[in-house]
Design brief:
The complex is a heterotrimer of chains A (443), B (203) and C (886).
Chain A lengths: L17 H5 L7 H6 L4 H9 L2 H11 L11 H6 L9 E6 L8 H8 L1 H15 L3 E6 L4 H16 L15 E6 L9 H8 L23 E5 H13 L1 H5 L2 E2 L2 E2 L1 E8 L5 E6 L4 H8 L9 E5 L19 H6 L9 E6 L4 H15 L5 H19 L5 H13 L16 H4 L1 H10 L1 H14 L3
Parallel strand pairs in A: 1-2, 1-4, 2-3, 7-10
Antiparallel strand pairs in A: 5-6, 7-8, 9-10
Chain B lengths: L4 H10 L23 E3 L14 H5 L5 E7 L11 E9 L8 H5 L5 E3 L14 E2 L1 H4 L25 H6 L28 H5 L6
Antiparallel strand pairs in B: 1-4, 2-3, 3-5
Chain C lengths: L11 E6 L2 E6 L4 H7 L25 E2 L18 E3 L3 H16 L15 H9 L17 E2 L4 E3 L9 H9 L5 E4 L6 E4 L11 H6 L5 E3 L12 E6 L8 E7 L2 E7 L12 H5 L14 E4 L2 E4 L2 H19 L4 E5 L5 H15 L4 E2 L8 H6 L7 H4 L2 E5 L3 H4 L1 H12 L5 E3 L13 E2 L7 H12 L7 H10 L6 E5 L9 H10 L5 E5 L6 H6 L6 E2 L3 E2 H8 L14 H9 L5 E5 L3 H4 L3 H10 L2 E6 L11 E4 L8 E4 L4 E5 L12 H11 L9 H11 L8 H6 L4 E2 L2 H4 L5 E2 L22 E2 L7 H18 L23 E4 L9 H4 L13 E3 L1 H7 L6 E5 L4 E8 L7 E3 L9 H4 L8 E6 L2
Parallel strand pairs in C: 1-4, 15-16, 15-24, 17-18, 17-20, 18-19, 20-21, 24-25, 25-26, 32-36, 33-35
Antiparallel strand pairs in C: 1-2, 3-4, 5-6, 6-9, 7-8, 10-11, 11-12, 13-14, 13-26, 22-23, 27-28, 28-29, 30-31, 32-37, 33-36, 34-35, 34-37
Helix pairs in contact in C: 2-3, 7-21, 8-21, 8-22, 13-14, 13-15, 18-20
The chains are: A alpha/beta (443), B alpha+beta (203), C alpha/beta (886).
Chain lengths: 443, 203, 886
C-alpha cells in the first residue's frame, strides 16, 4: 500500500498568503502591510467611485464563499434589496470547524488585508457599518485586529470620509463566547444581537432580514481577504485561476498524520495527492493512508482511491458526495481506528448542538453514545444498523449528497457524515469487530 | 316396575364417590390464579409500591376504587418517587374481581389474594381503606375480623401478575421482572400458564 | 414576521393536501389549513397564538417543488401547492423525531400530572414508533424545581419546544424565563434570584405539551380522567375571560383558559386561574345566622329571612322606603343584580342602591358613554390609556392592549399618573399630574385636531394616529382611587369630542358592569335607562318604582354614619376594605340601624352584621355576567354548594315574598328571561339564546345580533378518542345562524323582542358631557400627591383565601421619586410618618424612578389599611405630608 506515498513536488499559488510569507516579521503591522501594497486596491476602488463596478468584478471573478457553503459572493451581494438602508456587513471570523485554522492565520498575520477587503465589500454594497465576529479563543488574532483597526483608522482607511471619498465605514469587533453554532450565519447574527446563539428560520434570509432585521451580508474572513486581490488583478484575470466554476485559490488547512501539516494556499484543480503528498510531505512514518477528511469535519470522508480526484468544489459535491467545506484536510493513517474518529466527531457535535431543534439536540448525543459502545465493546451486532438509522432520521437518505436534513441548520446532518463514511468504507470491518467483541463476553 | 324406576338413579349414585365437600370444615384447593380480595404490596425496604397514580381507579369497570395521590414528604417518603397513594379505598360491595386494576398497575402495587371469604353486617366495613389493604410488616395481608382464611390463601399474593408481566406476553412467563416484596424477597414467578394447563411449554 | 400570520390576507388560494383539494386564505400556515381540513399534522412547538419557530421538527411534510422537508408550521400556503403529510419518508421522520424526543423523556407518566392528557403521549400513540431503541441512561435532573410560587419545572420531562419561553416574551411581555445550557442539557431557566413571577405564568402550564411545567395548586390533586368540566366565565375581574372549570369529588381543581377570540384568546391571569381555591376556603360561612343579644346565632333559613323581612317592613313603615339602602352586587351574577334591584326598587321602593363602592366611575358615564368592544383595540386608529394599571387590575385586557400596540402596531398613548405595565409598549407617554387629567385630555383633543398641544409626547402620538382608520379607543378609569372621579370625568368630557371615539370603562369588580346595567346604581333602572325615563315602563311591571333619585355609595355611607339608614344591606360588599375612606365606612356600619350581610365570608364589614345570609359563589351557581364591553356570558355551575347557602337572587325573591310580592321566579333561567323581557338594553338576551351562542351576546342586543355565532359543538377538553386538546387553543365550534337551522328561531325571537322593546320601552341613557367640566385642584408645593391603585394580589378575599395566591402578596411601601426622598431626608426603606387631611400613618418609604416627582404611590391593599386610611373623599385629590420620625 505504500506505493501511493509518492508524488511530484508541488508548489503553492500564494495570493492571499503572499504578504505573510514575504514579510514574516511585520506582515500584521500597518507599516509592513503598506510596504507590501496594502490598501492600494481600496484606493483604486475609491478613485473609481463606482460600487456596482466592484460588485461586477466580484461576480466576474467567480469568487465563492470560503466559509464552507461555497455560495457565489457577487450573487449574495446582489440579493440585498435595493434602497433599503441601513444595511450591514458581518464578517464571520468564528472559525470553529474542527481542524480548520486558515482564518486564524489570516487574522493573526494579515489583518490589514482583511480590513481592506471589508472596506471594499462595504463600499460595494454601500453599507456604513461592518461587524467582525471573531472566535473568542483567537486572543492574538483579536489583539492584532484591534491594533490594525486603530492603525487603519489613524491612516484614514476606516472611519469618516475614507481617503477623501466621502464614504464612511465604521467597524465593530465582537468576540464570541465559544459556541461552534455561532459560525452558522443566522446563529452568528443572533449572538451578535445579544441573543442566545441559535439558528434562525430561513427564509427570511439575512440578505433580506438579517442583523437587527436589516439587510445583511455575511462573508467569511478568507472571502473578504481575497477581494483586494480580485480588485488588483481584475475579476476576469482572477477567474483564470482554478478550474471550472472553482476559480482562484484556496487556503487549505492540512492536518493529521502528515509530515508537514500547515496552511497551504493552492489553486483549485490540483489533486488531493498534490496537497497531502506534494505539500504535506506524505504520511507520517511513511505509513499507509487510511482515509482523509476533505473539508473539515462535517462532510463525508475520502479514501486512497480518491487521491487523484481534482480539488474542485463542484466535483467534490457532485461526484464524490462530499464537500471541500471549510478548506481543512485532515489525514489519518493506517493506525487509526475509524470508529474512534467518528465517535470523537460525534462527541464534538453532541457538545456543540445548540439545542434548538429535536433531531440534532437528541440525535447527536444518542449517536455519540452508540458509537462509544461500539468503540468499547458494549455493542450488539444490530447497533451499527441502528446508528445508521438514527443518522438517517437526522439526515434522511444520509449516505447520499447533497444531504437532506430534518434539522433547522446543517449542524445535525454533520454528525451523519462520519456514520455514512463508516457505512461506506468500514461496514464489514465494524460488524466483524462487534461480533468478535461479543464472542469475548461470556454469555 | 315403572314406579321404582326413579329409585334406580338414586341407587346407582349411592355407590359412586361423593363430590360434595363439607365446606367450611373442608376447603378444597383453589385454582392458583383465583381472584380474591386485594392487597397493596410493599418493597423489601418497607416502602409502599403504590404511587397513587389512579390508573386502577381509571380502569375499574365497577368504579369501586377511590385513590388520591399526594406529594411524598421528602424527609419521610412513603413510596419511592414524587407521589404516593394518600387515600386508597376499595368498595367490595361493588368489586367484581375482574383484576383489571392489577393489570393496570404500573408498579405491581395492587395484586389479588385468594381470600374471598369475608362478610360483614355494616356497609362501612365493605369499604376497605388503605390501612386494611396494605400488607403488614411480614408482607402478609392484614386479617380483618370478618374474614375467614383457609391455610395458604394468604400466600403467593403477587404470583399471578409476575408470571405474565409486563404486558402479559407469553415470552415473559416464568421471568421475574420486578423488585422483591416485603417479607418475601423476590418471589418465585410461579407456574406458567402451560404448566398450569398441564401442557408443553409455549414456544 | 415574514412567515407568520401577519401576511395573511383575504385572497383565497387552492392547494392540495394528501390528494385533497382545499381552499385557504393565502399566507395562512399549512399546518393550520391542514387541521381545518381534517388533516392533523403532529406538532409540539407550534401554537396558533404565537409566532412559529419550527423547533420541534415534528410537523415536517413534503411539498412538491420544495427541496427536503419543510416544517408545516412555517410554510405559508400558496396557489397550486401540493403537500403530502403521510408519505413513507414523512412517516419515518415522525417516527424518528418522536423517538428522539422520548430518549431523554422519563416514562414516569403514572405520577405525571399531564399523564392521560399529554400531547406527547397522544402523538406518540398516533404517530410514533411502538418501541424505543434507546438503551442508555436517560438525562437526569433534580425533580421539580419551583420557577415561581405557582409553577414548578420538571426538567427531565421538558422537550425544549420553547412554548413557555416564547409565551413569556411574546404574549405576556415578562421575559423572565429562557433557555440555558446547550444540546440535550438545554433547560428552561429563570434569571438568578428572580423567579418567574409573571401574572400570566399559569398559561405556560396549560400550553406545555408535556408535564414539564406543573401548577403547584393542581399538583397531584387529580388525574385527567376523574375531572369533569363545565364552561364558565371568570368573574375575578370585569374582563370576563372564558374558562373551562374542572372539578373532582365536588372540589374545584382547575380552570383552563378557553379561546374566546373576542375576549381572552385562550389566556387567563394567574389570579383568575388559581383563584378558585377561595370557593372551598375554611372561612366560608355556610349557615344563616342572626344577632341575638350581641351574639350571632345560627338559625334556619325561614327564621333568618323572616327576621330580615320584619326589619325591612318596619323600616319602610316607620321611616319610609329610603331608609333602606343596598350596597354592592358587583360580585354576583346578572340575575342576582336584577332580583335585588327589583326587590330594592320595585318592592321596597328605595333608590339608595349602589354596586360600586366609591372607587369606580359615576354610573351615568359608564352607562352612557359610547362603548368599545375589546376586539376594537386591534383595529383601532389609536388607543388612549387613562386609568389604572391594567396589568394589575384587568390583566387580560392588558394582554389585548399590548397585542394591539405590539403586533397590530396601533399607536398607544399612556396618560396614567405613574408608570404602568403598558408603559413600555406605549407610542408616547405623557404623565398627568393626578387631578389634572382633564388638561391632558384637552391637549390630546387639540393635537388630534391638528393644533400643537404643548406636549411633545401627545403631539408625537397624534402624528402617529393621523391617517389611520378605525375608532379611537379610550380605556377610561380612575388612575388613582385617592382622587375623586371628577378629573376623570372632565377628561372623558374632552375625549367625547373626538370623532369616532369609544370607551372601555376600566372598572374592575367581576360583574360591576352587569350590576350597573341592571340598575344597581342610584337613578337607574334595569337595561340602561334612567329612573325618570323608565318609571313609566317599569311601574306596571313592578309593584312600585322609587319616587326620586337616591344616594350613591358615599351618600349612603354618610347617611348611615348619621344614623339615617335603618336597614343597610351589604350585597357581597365590604365597604371597610373597599371604600376609599375606611373611617367613614366604619362609622357607617356602626351607625346603620340594622345591617344585613348577603355574603360568603365574614369581613370587617359583615362581622358587624345583624343578619348574615350566606350566599353561593362562582362555581356553585349558574347565571350570566356582563363584562366591561357589555358582553353577556353564562356562568357554569360546577360544584354543589356546601352547607345551606342560597343564590343571591333567590334570597331576594324569598324576601320579596315575605314583603308581599311574589316574583314567581323558580329557576335561574326564568330570571334571565325576565331580564330579556323587561330591560331595554337586554331585550332578547334570553337564556336559550345565550345557551346557543358561542361568544355570548353584546348589549344592547339589537345592535349586535349579527355577531352571534351559534355553537355547533360542545366544549371538549378530553376528547373521547383522539388527542387531548387542552394544550392547544380550546375552542367551541360554531357557525353563523342559518335560515333553516333551529338556532335561527332563537335569533329571530331575540330580534323580535329587541324590536318590541325598542318601540315600547324607554331609550337607553346617553351621557351628557356638558355637565362634566370643572377645575383642577390647586397644589401645595411641599406635599406629595397620593396615587393609589390596586395590585393584582391585593388583600382581597380571592387572594387571602386562596392558599396558593396568598403568599404572592407584596409588602406595600410608599413609593416616591428619588429626588423627593432626598427632600424628605431619609434613607430608602425607613419608616416615615405620612399625614393626610384624614389621618396619620407610619409606613416604610422606597424610591422608584417611575414615580414622577411630587407624587407618591401607595397600593390600595383592600384590607382597610394603608391608603384607605389616608384618602379623603371629601376633596378631589389627597395630598400627603411625609415627615421623618424623630
Amino acid at each position: 500500500m505504500t506505493t501511493a506515498n509518492t508524488s511530484e513536488p508541488f508548489s503553492e499559488t500564494r495570493i492571499v498568503t503572499r504578504r505573510l510569507h514575504e514579510r514574516p516579521d511585520d506582515s500584521w503591522t500597518i507599516d509592513g502591510a503598506l510596504a507590501s501594497g496594502a490598501y492600494d486596491s481600496l484606493r483604486q476602488v475609491l478613485a473609481q467611485g463606482d460600487p456596482s463596478a466592484v460588485q461586477a468584478e466580484a461576480t466576474a471573478s467567480g469568487l465563492r464563499g470560503r466559509g464552507g457553503a461555497n455560495f457565489s459572493t457577487g450573487q449574495k451581494w446582489s440579493f440585498l434589496p435595493k434602497d433599503t438602508f441601513p444595511r450591514y456587513l458581518v464578517v464571520n471570523g468564528d472559525e470553529g470547524e474542527p481542524s480548520t485554522f486558515k482564518d486564524r492565520m489570516l487574522l493573526e498575520r494579515d489583518p490589514h488585508q482583511l480590513l481592506e477587503g471589508i472596506v471594499i465589500a462595504s463600499y460595494a454594497i454601500q453599507c456604513n457599518l461592518a461587524f467582525i465576529y471573531v472566535r473568542g479563543e483567537f486572543a492574538l488574532g483579536h489583539d492584532r485586529l484591534m491594533r490594525a483597526i486603530a492603525d487603519a483608522r489613524a491612516k484614514g482607511f476606516i472611519g469618516k470620509d475614507i481617503q477623501g471619498s466621502g464614504f464612511d465605514l465604521d467597524v465593530v469587533v465582537h468576540r464570541g463566547a465559544g459556541a461552534y453554532i455561532c459560525g452558522e450565519e443566522t446563529a452568528l447574527l443572533e449572538s451578535l444581537e445579544g441573543e442566545r446563539g441559535m439558528p434562525r428560520l430561513k427564509p427570511p434570509f439575512p440578505a433580506i432580514e438579517g442583523l437587527y432585521a436589516k439587510p445583511t451580508v455575511v462573508n467569511n474572513v478568507e472571502t473578504l481577504s481575497t477581494l483586494p486581490h480580485i480588485v488588483r488583478m481584475g475579476g476576469e484575470e482572477y477567474a483564470k485561476l482554478g478550474m471550472a466554476r472553482s476559480t482562484g485559490t484556496r487556503v487549505c488547512a492540512l492536518s493529521g498524520h502528515v509530515k508537514r501539516p500547515g496552511n497551504y494556499e493552492v489553486e483549485f484543480g490540483c489533486t488531493f495527492r498534490d496537497i497531502i503528498f506534494g505539500l504535506g510531505g506524505g504520511i507520517r512514518d511513511d505509513n499507509a493512508l487510511k482515509f482523509f477528511l476533505p473539508g473539515g469535519a462535517s462532510f463525508q470522508w475520502l479514501v486512497e482511491e480518491h487521491l487523484d480526484e481534482p480539488y474542485d468544489m463542484d466535483h467534490a459535491a457532485q461526484k464524490l458526495g462530499t464537500s471541500l467545506g471549510s478548506g481543512a484536510v485532515m489525514v489519518f493513517d493506517e493506525t487509526t481506528d475509524p470508529v474512534r474518529v467518528a465517535w470523537r466527531l460525534a462527541k464534538f457535535y453532541s457538545h456543540e448542538s445548540c439545542g434548538k431543534c429535536t433531531p440534532c439536540r437528541e440525535g447527536t448525543g444518542w449517536v455519540e453514545k452508540i458509537l462509544y459502545r461500539i468503540l468499547h465493546g458494549y455493542a450488539s451486532p444490530e447497533d451499527f444498523e441502528m446508528v445508521c438509522d438514527v443518522a438517517d432520521n437526522i439526515s434522511p437518505n444520509f449516505m447520499a449528497a447533497p444531504f437532506n436534513q430534518t434539522t433547522l441548520c446543517p449542524l445535525g446532518p454533520s454528525v451523519a457524515s462520519p456514520i455514512a463514511s463508516l457505512a461506506k468504507y468500514y461496514r464489514d470491518e465494524i460488524i466483524e469487530r462487534i461480533a468478535a467483541q461479543q464472542a469475548e463476553v461470556p454469555a | 316396575m315403572g314406579r321404582f324406576s326413579g329409585f334406580l338413579v338414586t341407587a346407582r349414585q349411592m355407590f359412586k364417590p361423593r363430590l360434595t365437600t363439607e365446606y367450611p370444615e373442608q376447603v378444597r384447593e383453589y385454582p392458583a390464579r383465583r381472584h380474591g380480595r386485594h392487597v397493596l404490596n410493599r418493597y423489601e425496604d418497607g416502602m409502599e409500591k403504590c404511587i397513587g397514580c389512579e390508573l386502577c381507579a381509571g380502569i375499574c369497570p365497577a368504579r369501586c376504587i377511590y385513590v388520591r395521590g399526594a406529594d411524598n414528604p421528602p424527609d419521610d417518603p412513603v413510596s419511592p418517587g414524587e407521589r404516593y397513594g394518600f387515600v386508597y379505598e376499595i368498595n367490595y360491595l361493588r368489586c367484581i374481581h375482574c383484576d383489571l386494576c392489577v393489570e393496570a398497575c404500573p408498579t405491581e402495587a395492587i395484586t389479588e389474594t385468594k381470600l374471598f371469604e369475608f362478610s360483614w353486617n355494616n356497609r362501612n366495613d365493605s369499604i376497605y381503606t388503605k390501612d386494611q389493604l396494605l400488607v403488614d410488616d411480614d408482607g402478609h395481608p392484614r386479617k380483618q375480623p370478618w374474614e375467614a382464611w383457609a391455610p395458604g390463601q394468604d400466600e403467593n399474593l403477587s404470583e399471578w401478575v409476575r408470571a405474565t408481566s409486563p404486558s402479559g406476553m407469553a415470552e415473559y412467563e416464568g421471568r421475574v421482572s420486578w423488585s422483591g416484596d416485603l417479607g418475601h424477597g423476590v418471589r418465585d414467578p410461579g407456574p406458567t400458564q402451560a404448566e398450569l394447563d398441564g401442557r408443553e411449554e409455549i414456544d | 414576521m415574514t412567515t407568520g400570520q401577519a401576511q395573511t390576507d383575504t385572497e383565497l388560494v387552492t392547494l392540495t393536501i394528501d390528494g385533497r383539494e382545499v381552499q385557504a386564505r393565502k399566507g395562512e400556515l399549512l399546518i393550520k389549513v391542514a387541521q381545518e381540513n381534517g388533516v392533523y399534522i403532529p406538532r409540539f412547538c407550534w401554537h396558533e397564538r404565537m409566532e412559529p419557530v419550527g423547533m420541534c421538527r415534528m410537523c415536517l411534510v413534503q411539498v412538491d417543488g420544495m427541496r427536503g422537508f419543510p416544517p408545516a408550521c412555517t410554510t405559508p400556503v400558496a396557489e397550486g401547492m401540493v403537500a403530502h403529510t403521510d408519505t413513507e419518508p414523512v412517516k419515518k421522520i415522525q417516527d424518528g423525531v418522536l423517538e428522539f424526543l422520548l430518549i431523554n423523556h422519563p416514562l414516569d407518566c403514572p405520577v405525571c400530572d399531564r399523564g392521560g392528557e399529554c400531547p406527547l403521549q397522544d402523538q406518540t400513540l398516533a404517530f410514533g414508533p411502538g418501541e424505543s431503541r434507546f438503551t442508555e441512561e436517560k438525562r437526569h435532573f433534580e425533580k421539580p424545581i419551583p420557577l415561581s410560587g405557582l409553577v414548578l419545572l420538571d426538567r427531565e420531562r421538558c422537550i425544549q419546544c420553547g412554548r413557555c419561553t416564547r409565551f413569556a416574551e411574546e404574549i405576556a411581555g415578562d421575559p423572565l424565563i429562557d433557555f440555558g445550557e446547550r444540546s440535550d442539557r438545554m433547560q428552561v431557566v429563570t434569571f438568578p434570584d428572580e423567579p418567574f413571577s409573571s401574572y400570566f405564568s399559569g398559561n405556560t402550564v396549560q400550553i406545555c405539551p408535556v408535564g414539564a411545567l406543573l401548577s403547584k395548586p393542581y399538583r397531584f390533586k387529580a388525574r385527567p380522567w376523574d375531572l369533569s368540566t363545565s364552561e364558565t366565565t371568570c368573574t375575578t375581574c370585569a374582563v370576563g375571560c372564558r374558562g373551562a372549570l374542572q372539578s373532582s369529588s365536588n372540589r374545584l381543581l382547575r380552570l383552563l383558559g378557553v379561546d374566546l377570540d373576542a375576549v381572552n384568546q385562550g389566556w387567563l391571569c394567574d389570579k383568575g386561574r388559581y383563584g378558585y381555591e377561595w370557593v372551598h376556603a375554611d372561612e366560608r360561612v355556610l349557615e344563616p345566622s342572626v344577632r341575638v343579644r350581641n351574639a350571632m346565632v345560627d338559625v334556619s333559613w325561614p327564621e333568618a329571612l323572616e327576621a330580615v323581612a320584619n326589619e325591612l317592613q318596619r323600616a319602610i313603615e316607620l321611616h319610609g322606603p329610603s331608609s333602606v339602602a343596598v350596597l354592592g352586587g358587583a360580585r354576583g351574577s346578572n340575575e342576582d343584580a336584577y332580583a335585588w334591584v327589583r326587590l330594592a326598587k320595585g318592592v321596597i321602593g328605595t333608590d339608595n342602591v349602589d354596586a360600586q363602592l366609591g372607587d369606580g366611575l359615576p354610573a351615568d358615564a359608564v352607562l352612557g358613554l359610547p362603548r368599545a368592544e375589546i376586539d376594537d383595540l386591534d383595529q383601532a386608529a389609536a388607543i388612549v390609556l387613562l386609568g389604572p394599571d391594567l396589568k394589575e387590575e384587568l390583566p387580560v385586557l392588558y394582554l389585548r392592549v399590548k397585542q394591539a400596540a405590539v403586533s397590530k402596531k396601533v399607536p398607544l398613548l399612556d396618560l396614567a399618573p405613574v408608570d404602568v405595565g403598558l408603559t413600555p409598549y406605549a407610542t408616547a407617554v405623557s404623565r398627568t399630574v393626578p387631578g389634572e387629567e382633564g388638561v391632558a385630555a384637552e391637549r390630546l383633543v387639540a393635537a388630534i385636531g391638528g393644533r400643537a398641544s404643548g406636549d411633545a409626547g401627545i403631539d408625537a402620538f397624534a402624528a402617529a394616529a393621523t391617517g389611520r382608520s378605525g375608532p379611537v379607543v379610550v380605556v377610561l378609569g380612575r388612575g388613582s382611587v385617592a382622587q375623586s372621579a371628577a378629573p376623570t370625568m372632565r377628561a372623558a368630557a374632552a375625549f367625547a369630542a373626538l370623532p369616532n371615539v369609544r370607551f372601555l370603562s376600566a372598572l374592575r369588580r367581576g360583574n360591576v358592569h352587569g350590576a350597573l346595567d341592571l340598575g344597581l346604581a342610584p337613578g337607574f333602572l334595569p337595561g340602561r335607562v334612567t329612573l325618570d325615563a323608565g318609571r313609566g315602563w317599569f311601574a306596571p311591571i313592578w309593584q312600585t318604582v322609587p319616587k326620586e333619585r337616591g344616594l350613591d355609595a358615599e351618600g349612603i355611607l354618610r347617611a348611615a354614619a348619621d344614623g339615617k339608614v335603618r336597614v343597610l344591606v351589604l350585597l357581597g360588599a365590604d365597604p371597610v376594605a373597599d371604600f376609599p375612606d375606611t373611617d367613614l365606612a366604619r362609622r357607617a356600619i356602626d351607625g346603620a340601624g340594622y345591617v344585613v350581610a348577603v355574603d360568603a365570608f365574614l369581613s370587617e364589614s359583615t362581622r358587624r352584621a345583624d343578619a348574615f345570609l350566606p350566599c353561593t359563589v362562582w362555581g356553585e351557581k349558574a347565571g350570566t355576567t356582563t363584562n366591561l364591553e357589555g358582553r353577556v356570558q353564562r356562568l357554569g355551575r360546577k360544584v354543589s354548594p356546601e352547607g345551606t347557602t342560597m343564590d343571591d337572587w333567590r334570597i331576594a325573591g324569598e324576601l320579596a315574598v315575605r314583603l308581599g310580592n311574589d316574583f314567581d321566579l323558580e329557576f335561574v333561567d326564568e330570571v334571565t328571561d325576565e331580564i330579556a323581557t323587561v330591560a331595554p338594553a337586554h331585550a332578547g338576551a334570553r337564556s336559550q339564546l345565550l345557551r346557543r351562542s358561542r361568544d355570548g351576546v353584546v348589549l344592547p342586543v339589537r345592535e349586535h345580533l349579527h355577531e352571534i355565532m351559534v355553537r355547533t359543538g360542545d366544549l371538549n377538553i378530553m376528547a373521547e378518542d383522539g388527542p387531548a386538546v387542552s394544550w392547544d387553543p380550546i375552542r367551541v365550534d360554531a357557525a353563523e345562524p342559518s335560515e333553516e337551522g333551529d338556532a335561527a328561531h332563537e335569533v329571530d325571537e331575540a330580534r323580535g323582542e329587541a324590536e318590541r322593546l325598542e318601540r315600547e320601552a324607554p331609550a337607553h341613557h346617553e351621557w351628557d358631557r356638558a355637565a362634566n367640566v370643572g377645575d383642577a385642584p390647586g397644589r401645595d408645593a411641599y406635599a406629595l400627591r397620593l396615587v393609589s391603585g390596586r395590585e393584582l394580589y391585593d388583600g382581597g378575599r380571592i387572594t387571602t383565601c386562596s392558599p396558593s395566591l396568598a403568599p404572592l402578596r407584596k409588602d406595600s411601601a410608599l413609593m416616591v421619586h428619588p429626588q423627593d426622598l432626598a427632600r424628605i431626608g431619609v434613607e430608602e426603606g425607613t419608616q416615615v410618618r405620612v399625614t393626610s387631611s384624614r389621618a396619620t400613618v407610619t409606613l416604610p418609604v422606597r424610591t422608584h424612578p417611575s414615580v414622577p416627582a411630587g407624587t407618591a404611590r401607595l397600593p390600595f391593599t383592600a384590607d382597610g389599611r394603608g391608603a384607605s386610611e389616608l384618602i379623603d373623599t371629601t376633596t378631589m385629590v389627597t395630598d400627603l405630608r411625609v415627615e421623618t420620625i424623630s
